[in-house]
Structure to design on (1333 residues):
């Protein structure tokens, strides 16, 4: 009997900027249909590691990624024919919502037509479905031509989610997606993530331990040594929060350090 | 065309356009240098400096009068414009009441936008007669040219100083205030040193602009190629010399003019490089 | 191709330019589709442009020298170089010796000539100008030894500068000066060695500092340039020449 | 403490004087131009050709020549400048070591005195390429002169967009062409326009680079190969070479300045409008 | 018998930007010789309130502060003769360390000579004492003329502390002073704050609940309502963390919200 491969499997991954490693030796496995939290203090390379998963830091000058990354059992290169396709499949959401300074409609349309061609009806359909899935449709249905930047922070972040979901990704990378939002808006997003995990694998970088406790199925804890990040401990959320094995994890989760 | 092919073509045209733009400089420098070279070969660099006079018709091509003329006029302009420009920047950023600040900023920007030939016109019609009447006729002189240039480069100096001050993170001034430093202490000890390199950049670029200006100076300097002995003497600058004589120059004369063009270019480029340097060092910490 | 044919350009002497402009206007009216552009810059520019092909015809306000025989001169009119002072200056006449002494800076004040107590302001022409060459030639002056107060280019600039300085002295085309005085410029032409500086004295050959006004061409003359020159040399333009206070050549 | 206070007072005094002096100079010069330029100004000045060496008549042909020269200049500067600006601003374009080199040479080009461009244009465009003294020659010369300014401001305005736009576009798998065509250029439009206006202003103000390239024929140009004088050269010629030309020189200066101010004003309005202008595209 | 007045007592203080209140109705009391933590979600006006205490937002255009503030029983205006003096007495440390881009020595000297006049020996003495009190003296003693910007983040923040302490303030305002630092550097600063509280009153804004638990004697909890911040609950740290009265405090401290 064969197990289904994990959504993401990394082996000995390191990310360096100008030859200086930010993280190194990261071996991790993130199952499908789960929320996988990455926690750890500031600067320990969580974001750097996350962007390695969809090759987003490839275009950062001086950035070098080493090691093996497999998505659904296939090496990154074989999994998607090119970068654009990879990024459609492995979507990413940032700390600050990044709506383009265009109308809500254009924000949705541009990526859709880029990947699925110019077909007005299909585009409109995908747009509506995605906005509905993030619960934004009702709020903006009648003002799709309003500048997206006029939405509130939480709405903007939901728009960014919708924009990515419209492309039907299989993996969703989230880099502190709620830390710039007010508590109510953050609550809405958390709910959404819980719903989304039935359809895809989510990797959630968060500063907020409480949030990780509320959402995570697995937890990967990054810590720093010799100026770069490494995985201090990882496993199911319950185990990590309640019975951490390492001293540093114990101190961190208890709030003594970090 | 497929999306990927279009994207590739786009990236290609980015590179080509950039290459073309970069080559423009190489070409301008090369060409002017190439045209100047025969002059050097014929006379040697020394002759341009030792030959006391510029009389192309008699075959003497001494650049010294023009070199001194350019220096005198530009330095006078700089001495006048630098402190005023810096003062203007401080005024705008820290002293002007909010109502005046916008107005002042606008005024400096507009002054910067006024074409040099208009300053020249003003100099010729208003300033030169004033000097002729109160100091010495005919009024076209180092003084007139220096004043016109000073007004011309003042906005440059002000804008650069202001930008340099503006580039300092607001936190710096906040931190200084939080330590209970008075306004002038904060400016003198923290902000001005921090903006120093940016201000130097403005100084270099203002000087370069003054050296390179042609027509406004030509209109009010008198254009006599001689070694000046007082502020009220007429002078001819290197650039004015080119403008006056390029139209008919041939042979050695033409090469000599290209050489003086090359000289001005070399000096301005040196200044611009110095300016760039000071900017870069600024960016580092 | 077509455009090339339909265009003629004249550059050079600021003395000739106003006249050439008038002639061109009349010629254009007679030859539809032809455009003639005229620009100043000095006689030397006229010669240089003609040689380099930047202009079809050069304008030179003096006789060509021996070493300029590569160019062909086409006589257009005659003119003189007259000494001018500010119209408020009481001086009415000057001698060649006085001019020499003024330009050598031996005489520095108008008082020496019976004028007001004011330092003389020396207005001098830039090199490359025929007016300068004619002046230097006539007075046997060596240009490097002259240290003027202002150097001017076009005749008009000289007139403007003297008009702006009551103590100024300069020398310009008599034709241009007469037109300017008619238009109210604050200058006057003064007698040189007892001879009136005017179109009349140029015409009768008595004015000492007279000169030719020439159109010049280099190498083979294109069809349309040749016919323009022929027109400019014909008696049809005599009225225009007189209108600019120049003297038509003996035809 | 009193020492500190005295210093503060003196500094304030000096700085206020500098500020007021500059405001005074501004009022004096601009006032002079407006005052003299407006006296006897008639609309006919804009619709008639110059006559009597510019002493009489208006500036119609001069305006036309100016417009044509600017058009030639823009036609070259805009595409090359925009593409180069994008190349320099985009960290994914692979500028590597090349980009700083280009930037360096552009900065240098920006510092070259304009009379040198005049020399260059005269020798290369007019003489070598046989374009003679013409609007085309002048426009091309100006284009080389203005190019570095436009490129740098295009680069700056693209750089002023948050990097996160570019990242987000990449994360959505958008191609660079799509990103610039649909997102970055529209968003940076006010900045790009500002650069354009800066370049236009420089070109409008230029004289030294044009006297040997576009010439100073006063007639209405009929083709790009005709010589034609710009407003600035008209001012120069009237002021320098035409007795009794000062009045029309002032009027022309007034027109030129009003033109520059208007362009500036339009630019500012554009910048102020920009958020909605950008976002409702 | 009279009680010593609290170091800071505010009554109904509000701070508005361009007419829009950021916080309002803040009545709080911070005792002397204690660390008084202010916690709460992002954007609820903690920083705005803090800078009202030394009138630092006075120079922010469009900012208006209302209400009463008393320091050691005296109204702000009577407590210090002028702004400069007030700020010497009520020092402030920011989230990012802000060393002036000058040498370490100049950083220390400028504020000292401004307030105590130009006396080389006294200045040097104050400088040394202050650097010693933050534990930086040993590290920089031999390179006082090095640019302060070349220090590490933690050293920079300690330099900023020393610069302020050299002026002998009676109140120290700290706006998330460790959030831009790595965990080790943050630990050093925390230790310092603990030492300082014997000499002055500290007001510490922090995002980091664990930090507040570790350091605070009193806690003031800001929350948001109708778009502006208010004090949801305040009191001794023990009470607030262990037996909060309000629902919202309970949820926040338990990590359910925010
Ligand atoms: N573009 C870059 N160039 C150079 N160094 C970088 C770059 N991006 C990140 N780094 C460095 O890599 C290290 C890890 O940064 P990263 O942003 O991945 O950390 P993080 O864990 O996400 O921190 P935070 O929680 O603050 O977001 C840091 O030391 C940072 O300075
Ligand atoms: N200079 C300013 N101009 C206008 N609004 C401002 C200004 N500074 C702060 N605000 C507004 O005041 C509100 C409170 O901001 P403040 O920085 O005080 O919050 P905070 O609690 O310190 O948040 P954080 O935890 O993110 O630092 C915010 O809505 C902010 O937008
Ligand atoms: Mg991060
Ligand atoms: Mg804050
Ligand atoms: O302009 P000129 O006639 O003196 O050559």
């Amino acid at each position: 009997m064969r197990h289904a491969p994990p959504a993401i499997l990394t082996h000995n991954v390191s990310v360096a900027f100008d030859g200086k490693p930010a993280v190194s030796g990261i071996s991790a496995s993130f199952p499908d249909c789960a929320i996988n939290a990455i926690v750890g203090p500031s600067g320990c390379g969580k974001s750097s590691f996350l962007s390695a998963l969809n090759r987003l830091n490839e275009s950062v000058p001086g950035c070098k990624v080493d090691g093996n990354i497999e998505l659904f059992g296939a090496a990154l290169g074989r999994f998607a024919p090119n970068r654009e396709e990879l990024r459609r499949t492995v979507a990413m959401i940032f700390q600050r919502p990044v709506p383009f300074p265009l109308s809500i409609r254009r924000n949705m349309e541009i990526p859709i037509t880029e990947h699925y061609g110019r077909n007005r009806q299909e585009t409109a359909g995908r747009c509506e479905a995605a906005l509905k899935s993030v619960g934004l449709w009702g709020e903006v249905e009648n003002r799709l031509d309003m500048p997206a930047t006029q939405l509130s922070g939480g709405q903007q972040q939901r728009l960014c989610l919708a924009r990515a979901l419209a492309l039907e990704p299989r993996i969703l990378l989230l880099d502190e997606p709620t830390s710039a939002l007010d508590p109510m808006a953050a609550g809405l997003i958390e709910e959404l993530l819980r719903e989304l995990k039935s359809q895809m694998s989510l990797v959630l970088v968060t500063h907020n331990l409480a949030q990780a406790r509320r959402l995570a199925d697995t937890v990967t804890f990054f810590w720093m040594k010799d100026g770069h990040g490494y995985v201090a401990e990882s496993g199911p959320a319950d185990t990590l929060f309640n019975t951490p094995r390492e001293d540093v994890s114990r101190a961190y989760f208890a709030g003594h350090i970090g | 065309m497929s999306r990927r092919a279009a994207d590739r073509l786009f990236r290609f045209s980015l590179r080509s356009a950039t290459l073309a733009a970069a080559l423009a400089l190489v070409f301008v420098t090369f060409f002017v240098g190439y045209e100047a070279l025969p002059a050097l070969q014929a006379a040697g660099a020394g002759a341009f400096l030792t030959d006391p006079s510029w009389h192309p018709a008699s075959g003497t091509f001494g650049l010294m009068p023009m070199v001194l003329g350019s220096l005198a006029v530009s330095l006078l302009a700089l001495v006048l414009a630098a402190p005023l420009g810096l003062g203007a920047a401080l005024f705008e950023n820290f002293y002007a009441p909010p109502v005046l600040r916008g107005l002042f900023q606008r005024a400096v920007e507009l002054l910067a936008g006024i074409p040099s030939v208009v300053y020249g016109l003003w100099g010729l019609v208003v300033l030169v007669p004033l000097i002729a009447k109160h100091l010495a006729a005919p009024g076209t002189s180092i003084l007139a040219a220096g004043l016109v240039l000073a007004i011309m480069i003042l906005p440059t100096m002000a804008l650069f100083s202001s930008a340099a001050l503006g580039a300092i993170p607001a936190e710096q001034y906040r931190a200084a205030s939080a330590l209970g430093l008075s306004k002038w202490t904060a400016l003198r000890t923290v902000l001005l040193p921090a903006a120093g390199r940016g201000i130097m950049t403005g100084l270099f670029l203002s000087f370069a602009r003054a050296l390179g200006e042609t027509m406004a100076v030509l209109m009010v300097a008198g254009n006599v190629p001689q070694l000046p002995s007082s502020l009220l003497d007429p002078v001819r600058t290197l650039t004015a010399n080119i403008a006056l004589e390029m139209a008919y120059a041939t042979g050695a004369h033409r090469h000599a003019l290209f050489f003086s063009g090359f000289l001005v270019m070399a000096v301005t480029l040196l200044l611009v490089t110095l300016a760039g340097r000071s900017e870069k060092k600024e960016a580092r910490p | 191709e077509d455009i090339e044919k339909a265009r003629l350009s004249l550059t050079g002497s600021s003395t000739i330019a106003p006249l050439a402009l008038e002639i061109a206007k009349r010629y254009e009216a007679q030859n539809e589709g032809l455009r003639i552009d005229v620009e100043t810059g000095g006689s030397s520019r006229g010669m240089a442009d003609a040689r380099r092909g930047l202009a079809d015809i050069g304008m030179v306000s003096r006789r060509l020298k021996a070493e300029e025989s590569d160019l062909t001169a086409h006589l257009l009119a005659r003119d003189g170089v007259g000494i001018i002072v500010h119209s408020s200056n009481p001086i009415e006449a000057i001698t060649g010796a006085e001019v020499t002494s003024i330009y050598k800076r031996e005489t520095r004040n108008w008082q020496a000539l019976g004028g007001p107590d004011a330092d003389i302001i020396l207005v001098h022409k830039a090199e490359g100008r025929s007016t300068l060459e004619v002046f230097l030639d006539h007075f046997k002056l060596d240009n490097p030894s002259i240290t003027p107060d202002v150097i001017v280019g076009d005749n008009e600039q000289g007139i403007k500068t003297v008009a702006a300085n009551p103590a100024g002295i300069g020398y310009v085309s008599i034709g241009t000066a007469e037109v300017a005085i008619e238009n109210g410029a604050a200058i006057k032409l003064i007698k040189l060695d007892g001879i009136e500086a005017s179109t009349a004295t140029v015409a009768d050959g008595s004015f000492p500092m007279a000169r030719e006004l020439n159109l010049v061409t280099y190498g083979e003359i294109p069809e349309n340039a040749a016919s323009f020159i022929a027109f400019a040399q014909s008696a049809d333009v005599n009225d225009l020449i007189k209108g600019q206070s120049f003297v038509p050549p003996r035809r | 403490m009193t020492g500190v206070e005295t210093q503060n007072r003196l500094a304030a005094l000096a700085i206020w004087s500098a500020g007021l002096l500059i405001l005074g100079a501004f009022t004096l010069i601009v006032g002079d131009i407006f005052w003299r330029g407006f006296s006897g100004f008639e609309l006919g000045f804009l619709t008639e050709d110059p006559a009597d060496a510019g002493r009489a008549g208006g500036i119609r042909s001069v305006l036309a020549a100016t417009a044509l020269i600017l058009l030639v200049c823009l036609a070259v500067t805009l595409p090359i400048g925009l593409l180069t600006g994008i190349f320099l601003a985009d960290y994914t374009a692979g500028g590597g070591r090349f980009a700083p080199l280009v930037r360096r040479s552009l900065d240098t080009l920006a510092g070259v005195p304009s009379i040198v461009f005049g020399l260059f244009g005269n020798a290369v465009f007019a003489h070598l390429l046989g374009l003679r003294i013409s609007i085309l020659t002048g426009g091309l010369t100006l284009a080389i002169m203005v190019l570095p300014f436009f490129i740098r401001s295009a680069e700056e305005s693209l750089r002023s967009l948050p990097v996160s736009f570019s990242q987000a576009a990449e994360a959505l798998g958008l191609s660079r062409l799509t990103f610039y065509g649909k997102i970055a250029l529209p968003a940076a439009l006010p900045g790009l326009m500002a650069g354009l206006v800066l370049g236009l202003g420089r070109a409008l103000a230029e004289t030294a680079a044009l006297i040997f390239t576009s010439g100073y024929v006063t007639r209405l140009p009929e083709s790009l190969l005709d010589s034609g004088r710009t407003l600035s050269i008209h001012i120069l010629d009237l002021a320098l070479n035409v007795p009794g030309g000062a009045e029309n020189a002032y009027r022309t200066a007034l027109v030129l300045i009003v033109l520059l101010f208007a362009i500036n004003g339009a630019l500012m309005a554009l910048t102020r409008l920009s958020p909605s202008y950008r976002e409702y595209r």
Q: What stands out?
A: Strands of chain C lie at 7-12, 35-39, 57-60, 71-86, 93-94, 121-125, 150-152, 168-173, 187-192, 210-218.
